[in-house]
Every structure is written in C-alpha cells, then in structure tokens.
Amino acid sequence: MAEPAWTEQPPLARLIEAGRPVASADPPGVRLTVRAPRRLVQVMARRGGFRATVDAARGLFGSPPPSRPEAVFTADATLVWSGPGQFLVLDHAEPIDDPAAALRTAFAGTASVVDQSHGRVEIEVAGRQARAMLAKLCSLDLAAPAFAVGAAAATSIDHTNVTLWREPDDSDGPVFRFLVFSTFAESLWHLFTASAAEFGAAKGLR
Amino acid sequence: MADLVGTTGVQRRAAEAATQADGQAAAQPRRLAAGGLIDRASPLRFTFDGRPLTGFAGDTLASALLASGVKLVGRSFKYHRPRGILSAGSEEPNALVELRSGARREPNSKATTVELFDGLSALSQNRWPSLSFDVGSVNSLFSPLFVAGFYYKTFMWPGALWERLYEPAIRRAAGLGRASGLADPDTYEKAWAHCDVLVVGSGPAGLSAALAAGRAGARVILCEDDWRLGGRLLSDPAEIDGRRGLDWADAALAELASLDQVTIMPRTAVFGVYDGGTYGALQRVGDHLPVPPEHQPRQRLWRIVARRCVVCAGAVERPIVFPGNDRPGVMLASAVRTYIGRFAVLPARRTVVFTSNDDGWRTVEAISAAGGEVAAVVDPRGSVPARFEAGSRGVPVIAGVVAAVEGGSGGVRGVTVRTADGRLRVGAGCLAVSGGFNPNVGLASGFRGRPGWRDDIAAFVPSGGPPGLRSAGAANGTFGLAAALREGHAAGTEAAAECGATGHPGEPATAADEALAITPLWHVAGAGKAFVDFQHDVTASDIALASQEGFDSVEHLKRYTTLGMATDQGRTSNVNGLAILAAGRGRSMLETGTTIYRPPQVPVAIGAFAGHHRDEHFHATRLPPSHHWAAERGAAFVDVGLWKRAQWFPLPGETDWLQSATREVRAVRSSVGFCDVSTLGKIEVCGPDAGTFLDRVYINTFSSLPVGRARYGIMLREDGMVMDDGTTSRLAEDHYFVTTTTAKAGPVMQHLEFCRQVLWPELDVQLASATDQWAQFSIAGPRTRDLLVLLADPGEDLSGEGFPFMGARAVRLRGGLPARLFRISFSGELAFELAVPARFGEALARNLMELGAGLGVVPYGTEALGIMRIEKGHVAGPELNGTTTAGDLGFARMMSTKKDFVGRVMAARPELIRPDRPVVVGIRPVDPARRLRAGAHILPKGAVPGPDTDQGYVTSACFSPTLERWIGLGLVSHGRERHGETVRAFDPLRGEDYEATLCDPVFYDPDGGRQRG
Fold this sequence. Notes:
The structure holds two protein chains of two kinds.
Chain A: E1 30-34, E2 39-45, H1 50-61, E3 71-73, E4 77-83, E5 86-91, H2 101-106, E6 111-115, E7 120-126, H3 130-134, E8 152-157, E9 160-170, E10 173-181, H4 185-196, E11 201-205
Chain B: H1 9-18, E1 39-48, E2 51-57, H2 61-67, E3 74-75, E4 82-83, E5 96-99, E6 106-110, E7 120-124, H3 150-154, H4 160-173, E8 188-200, H5 204-216, E9 220-223, E10 239-240, E11 243-244, H6 245-258, E12 262-265, E13 268-274, E14 278-283, E15 299-311, E16 315-317, E17 330-332, H7 333-341, E18 350-355, H8 359-369, E19 373-378, E20 397-398, E21 400-406, E22 414-419, E23 422-427, E24 430-434, E25 437-439, E26 452-454, E27 459-461, E28 469-471, H9 481-498, E29 531-533, E30 538-539, H10 540-548, H11 554-561, H12 574-585, H13 589-592, H14 606-610, H15 627-632, E31 636-640, E32 643-648, H16 657-670, E33 673-676, E34 681-686, H17 690-697, E35 710-716, E36 722-732, E37 735-740, H18 745-759, E38 766-769, E39 774-780, H19 784-791, E40 808-812, E41 818-822, E42 831-837, H20 841-851, E43 858-859, H21 862-871, E44 918-925, E45 937-940, E46 952-960, E47 965-973, E48 982-987, E49 992-999, H22 1009-1012
Parallel strand pairs in B: 1-7, 8-9, 8-15, 9-12, 15-28, 17-24, 18-19, 18-24, 19-20, 33-43
Antiparallel strand pairs in B: 1-2, 3-4, 5-6, 5-7, 10-11, 13-14, 14-15, 16-25, 21-22, 22-23, 26-27, 29-30, 31-32, 33-39, 34-37, 34-38, 35-36, 36-37, 39-42, 40-41, 41-42, 44-47, 44-49, 45-48, 46-47, 48-49
Helix pairs in contact in B: 5-6, 5-9, 7-8, 10-12, 16-21
C-alpha cells in the first residue's frame, strides 16, 4: 500500500518569481522576502494571570514578553505583542509535532496557548524605499522616531488584519516584518509587489 | 458712442516689437520676446481641435493657446455661448477641454492647469459640428425657456415622458465633454503621509509658514497644487528681504529642501479635511506626461495625517457681473498679469481694465510694462490710487462701469462704458476685470464651519475652522505681501510649537507694506445676459427670479439655479451670486451666508479613490489551502465573500455545471468524495470558563459536552434572530473548537470578542482565530472509512465504536502528521472532517486522490455540497438569512430553558413566536419534470397573488440527483402542519406559475441511518 507523502507547501512559492514585473534598480529600492515558516504560537494570559505569564516567559526566553505594542528580540525567539495580555512567539523549534506542546506545558495554568504556525505567513519588507512603499498600504506612521526598532502594531492592510514590527536596521535601511493570515497572503503579496514596483523590488524566500 | 481712446503710434510699435520672438512670431503672435518662466529653448508642439500649434516648456495649455492667439476655447453648458479663458488657475469655469484620445481621453480638463507637453492633443467640448459654428448655440435664442428651475417647470407633465424623452434629450444637449467609455489604461495609488505641520500652498505666506515650522524642527509637508512653487510670486513682481520675489522664493525652497524633516509635494491639491486631522490630497504624478512612466501611477491619492495645518491657499479673484461678461477675451485682471509675468503672453494689444479695487491697477502697470496698451481703466471710484499714479501715467481713467461687451466668438472687440454723463465705446481686444478677491476658505470651512465676512475687503474670511487648522496670508484675507509674510511665519511658528518643536523659527521675511482698498461692485444691471456662474450658465436674472419665487435661502438658490454646482464648485461665482441675492433681499452678506463647504474642493477621479482596488483586485481574496491544486484540475471557482471556492470539478466531456455537480453527488452517495471546507470559521475557545462562555452564546448547552465529542450549536443575535450555526467540539476540559459558517466567520469572532471583553469580563476565557491554521476537508460517502484507514495511523480506531457519530479528537496520520478528526456530516452520508496544518492541505488533497483512486474518490465543489445539504434538509445561508428565529428553522426545542443566553429574551417577543411565522419546509413541484427556482412565492392553491395571500417563498432549490427531480427548501407560514398540501408557486420575476407540494425538508435518509453507519 502506498504511504501518503506529506509535502509541505512553502508559502507563496508560486508567486515569488511570477507576478507583475517591477522596475529595475540597483540596488533595488525594496526587498520583499517571504520568511521560511517558523514555529508561531499565540500565548494568551488567563484572567489575572499576566504576571505569572511574564514570569514563565522570562524563564523560557530570558526576557519578559512585551506588555505593549512592541517586539522583544531574545537569543532564540522574537516575542511580538498581539493584544492586551497576549503575544506571539516566533522561533525555530521543531515545527511538525504539535509545536505548541512544550509551551502549553510551560504556561500550564497561566496562559492559553494556540499553535498558529500554519496560520500566518511572515513577510519582510526592507530597503531604502521600504517606508515609501509601505506608505501605500499601511496607515501607520512608520518614520524612525514614531516607529522605532522594536515597535510593533496590530493593524489592517487592505482590510485584512496584520501584525507588524520593526527589526534592527540592516546596511540598506529599515527592516519591517509582517505576519499576515495565510489565506490572504497571495492577495497581499500582489499588493506588496505592485506597491514596490516603481522602486525596483527584489523578491525572495529566506 | 465715440471711440474715446485711440492707440498712440508709439505704444502700438512697442507692442508689436514685444511680440516678435524670433521665428515664433507667426506661430505665437501674442508671445512676448523676453521674460516669463518659460523655456524658449524647449518648444513643444500640440494640437487644438486638430490645428497644430506650438508653445514652450513651462506653459499651460491656456497660456500656449493665448500665445497662439486662440481666444475661443469652448462652448457653454446650457446656451452653448462661445467662451474663452477667464482665469489662470484651477478656478477656471470656461476653458474646459478634452485631453488626449482613445482610452486616455479625459473630458473637462481645465486648460489653465494643464501642463503643456510635446504631442498634447486637446479638443474643445460641447460643440457640433465645430467650435466656431455650433448648432447648439440656437439654445441661446430660446434662452427665455432656460431660466432658473426650468427643468422642474417645463417637464413636470406628463411624467412618463421624462424618462423616455426629456431626460435623454437634455443629457445630449447639455453635459460637459464625453467620457472615453473604455477601461482606463493607467494605474492609481493611495498612500498615507504623516507630519506635524501640513502647509497648503507655497506662496509668500505658505513658504514663510513652512520655513518657520521647518526651522523649528517640526515634520512639515508642503503641498502645492501648481507644478512650480511660489504662488503669486511667479506672476507679480515683488521685493522681499531686498531681493526679487522669485529669488527669495528660490532661496526659501532651497532651504526647505535642505531640511530633512520637510517634504515638498508639488502638483498636489489638498481637497478636504477629515476627522482626526486627516487631509485628502491628490498628487498628479503623471498627468503632465503623455503616458505615465512604467510602474508609475498617473495619480496618487494621499491621506495626510497632520497634527496642525496652515492653509495658505491664497485667494481667487472674482469677476464682476455685467452684460456680456462671458465673452472670449474678458479675463480676470490678475490672470492677465499671470499670463504676462509668468508665461510672457500679452493676451491682446489693447486692453481695457475694469476694476473696483486697487489690485486691478497692478494689472495696468503690468500691461504697460510689457509694452501693451491700456485703452482705458474703468473704475467706478473714478480716481487713480496714489500708489499707482506713476505706473499708470497717461492711461485714460473713466469713472463708470462696463455696461456691454462687443464681440462674439471672435473675441472682444470693444466695450461700452456707462458713466454719469452717458455711454461711450472703447475698442480693445481684452477686458481685464477685477471685482476683488475671495480668500480660499474651503478647507477652513470644513466640518460645517461658516466663514465670517469682512466689509473692509468685501470678502468671506475663515472663522474658526476644523481643529488644528489655521489660515494665513490671502487665504485669511491678508492681502498685503508684507503682512502675508509675517502672518505665514507666525502661523508656522505657532503650529510647530504646538507640536512640541523647540527650534528657532528664524525671522519673518520683510517687504513693503501695502493695503487693498475696495469699493465692492457686484452687478452692473443692463440689457443682455450678465453671467454669475459661467460654467452652469447662471445669470443675474436667474438669481433674481429664484429669489422672487421664494428660493432665497442660499442652499435653495444653489439647487434651484445650479449656481456653484459645476466642476469649478463656483469658485468664481458663489460670492457674486450671494451678493446679488443679498442686495435683492436687502440683507447683509453675513445674514445671507454661504452654502455648506464640503470636500472635495477640487474634482478627484474615482480611479484615484479606487487605487489598486480595481478589476480582480477590487477586494482582497482568500484562497483555501487546496486552491492551486483545484485550479490544476480545472475547477470552476465561485466568489464566496472574499473566498474563492471550487464550485465543481469538470471532467473531460462535461459541458454543464449541473452535469458535473450531479456526477459528484452520485459519486459521494455511492462511494466517497471530499471537499475543502477550510473556509468555515474556526475559533479556539480556551480557558477554565470556556464551557460557561459557550453556554451563554449558544442557545444549547456546551458545558456538558464530553471531551472528544462535537455538538451542533446555534447562536442568536441580541434581537433574538439566528446569527450563525456550526459544530463545536471539546478537545480538552478547557479547550473547545468552534466552527462557524464561511460567511459569518468574521462577525462571529467579533461577537465572541465583544461578549468576552464587554459583557462578561469576569469569565476566564481566551479566543484565537484558527481559520488559517487548518486545512479542513470533509470526506463523505459510504466508503469514507475505507479511504480514511489508508490515511490514518494504523493505531487510530475509526470504527463506529472507536469513533462514533459526533466524535472529535486529535489523531495522527500515516507518516506522523498530527491532525484533527471530527465525525460530522453535512451531506447525510457517513462523513468525517479531517484537519491538517494548512501547508499540508494540498498534500492532503493529493493523498486523498491517490489513496482513493481504487474507491473511485471524487473531489466535489460547493454545488454538490449545496445539493446534498438540501437533500438532507440542512439549513444554510439562504435560511439563516437574518430574519429567521431558531423556531422558524425547526430548532425551538434546542433553546435551553435552564440557562440564559444571548438573544433569549428578545426571541420570546410575540412577533417572533407567532404561530403563523414562515418556517422551514420542503417543497417539490407537482410535475416531476418541472424546475423549481429559489425566490418563487408560495400561495394557497388557487389564490390570487398579492401581499394578503403570500405565505412565503422558496429559499433554496436544486436538482436532486438522488431523487432525480427538482426539490427545495422554503420558509412557509404554518409549513410544518402542511406537509402534503398542494400550493401555488408563483414567480412573476421569471414568469413562472406552477403547483408544488409541501413536504418534510429531509428528502434523503430521514432516519439518519447512513450518517450514523
């Protein structure tokens, strides 16, 4: 009997090279990168359990989780605020076998833990013109002082919920990361590439 | 009448010499030899009504037309009167043209704001067969018919003729320009910007405000409608800080450009102010180019979020209303100066200036300085203002008013001046008119603000205004250059300080002080049409008539006469109209008031508002995990909300959706099939109080549900109507998994969050949307278990005992993949829903096809899904339509009486429990060959159709492959007691009328043996 083959479909694989042509610029004004899937777990403190959740998270990650719209970068993980009393854990733990199990144990009794590893696609927008491009989709003020490194937000793009935060700058300028709902990802990717077209865009998977 | 003022030989020679630009003289007879902000080294070719003409880089279409000696540019809206160019800006009511051709044809472009480019083609509008010979101008002969409110008066009766005859005829005769009728080939964008201080306008006040705010360290955005910054400094000679005005402006711009926090946006019109300090602005990215560059939008719609706004949008000169004031060659005096100073075009050799204020005298100076001849200055005040004595020496001054204009489509030939002593004629090719200035108070009067009135300048000025907005310079009624510079600087300084900027704003620039003296003159009565609104052909007598007929509130006047309702929004006409109304009624301007100012202040194309959201990108789309696999198999897709769902999977040779869907149903009922149901909303409900929480949102009880089991649930809205249904499973003591319908996933999540956060904050419950996390497939049919055992880990017990109907638990699949399995059925067959992490959804579809090949497995789409649920009598969207109660749907007994839940009290309202409410019932046509259609009304047999006999309607209908006939569900009064009754199905929309039988809604396997098997 044939064994089922479980080929994981990488996010946006079909669209990274396809899609609308963009202007050529060297270096490209915008770099759009689909990040390889990571473990993504939503941690929601139980009623009155935020302090205990913070303690448990500190024990796990070495840093307290964000308690306001921020991203916390630890040695192994990024913790992103996702609402009052809740945050997302992004790291590289083994993704296939109930990714949330270990965290569920660690937060037992203090927080509810839901696996979202397949529920979101992580997209990075970087480059000199990243802000000019994002101004076309995002109503937030992403300028340096208003949205510092480590700032995070839960907002709406194209009437779709997204979570975004600012990573440390690279040599080419600011770096923003977006978590978008997986089923909206292709539609948003189109909007991202269309908005980046005039600046020249490098598209890739990493 | 005598030709009072002759042309002196000296002046004539000067004018001729001035217009002889080498080689261009013939082509551009009105172009001055020197001066202006045009590039004579960059000639541009363009056509007007097919006639080849030339201009220079830096020209507008209007300035190039005037340079070429073109006076007649268009025909008016109603009377088809010949019209020329009145202004030099966005207030232009007359010179509207069609630009470009083909799909890019753009009607109603203002020639005065169109940047000339090489190859531009422009056509005049509203004329047939040609501009100079226009058949429609016969309307002028019937003008007594076209008075204020004539549509309302003339075409009152008979009403039936309105739609068929009057309206099409009026639309043909009137209207402005023609839309291309083709899809717009260009792209548009929307964007956001953020700043501390938004400065609107880049004249002396705007530059001063931007400089002060920028120097202080504020984040500044400076928007300028024009492509070149400087405002009136581009047109009028001035001295600022001891330098030429233009040089000062260039230095200011250079300084602004050097400030990191300052963004300069030319070609950007701020069109409105909205809540929270948000300003709408339209940036014309590519309008000045024949075709926008690749990857560039044509226009970009900005939403600028500004903590403070300084409006330095200047003022618009207003015409004077006198007979013949619309003739080509009658121009605003300041526009004449702009054409001379900025574009090096002298509109005519001989000009008469008609002014009620000092500013008109600047035009006298400008014309003389350019070598033109001022044939006379008509100023009712009668004397030369002291400041202008030197500059207007030798110019005849007449104390009087212009009472008539001579000339038609060929342009002005002369004017008749009425003085205390009588009338005299002055020959001239241009009449420059100044009736004073209207500050641009539109933005400042947003949020239903009302401007104030200042008698000293005879103008409406900002009064109050939206929060955070202030005006400065001419926009604030401050007309003197020195005062405008000071006021702009002060406004910029204050705005920046209010945003916390602490830097030094520098010193305000200085200039000579000057004041504007004006004796308002609104209307010169006399024989002949005197126009108030040029674009809508509203005359002074229309306003008098409207007032006489009782339409003397400004809002009524506007609607009745259409004053100010054209594309220029009455920028040259409103105040004059109000003044004539006020004078007629003996009221002050303030008592008369203005109409409400509403955005947009300038026309904005719908395309700009749409941005990227057009065609297939009109809205975001959601793709279920198996989408690309389904597309590979040639599935037909249907839009379900934002989702694209596979509707059916045609096989070669199948030509019809019904054929494919019928095959899919038969395959499921006889063997096994599967369908991607990932679109159902999925919500993880966690926490110790999850069960209590669900008891309160569902009509039935979930706290008693054992772990490992699923239950069907219904939730109500507060008003007692059904909101949604779905199955909820208990995966752990403190963990439930709720599914919603596809359509209501978002609203249900919102509802649950509202309940959790607002209604019962004391409950310890957490919610997470997991719709995107799981690829969930329904696998249905008698061979389902045979297929599942090939997929599931051999350790999983899928037998009837090991996995009973409504069982739910986490399982492991062969190859180690974790999954969730639910034994629930929507089809009436033995069925499971299998959920795997979403990125394995495509693999699951492929595995099901491969492993099930021997079983004859089929993928099925939403059509087969819908057919099977109707056969089984399951309610769905058409029945859960927001007007039905749980009782209507047959779930009255599910409503727990032992607990409270959302909607319980309101569901008991008498109207919601009336025994004759339409309830769900099955329906089948008496003739088994007849097609049943949703929407057909149900009446008692033999009843006459009407509201009194209507008893309900068919909600869902399908061809049942199992029963081989059309069947349906309906909502019918007393339906449950009427099984077996023959009724009349009446469908006037489709012209159908037939007999049908009411029956049990469960057409298939009524005792449920198959799904429990």
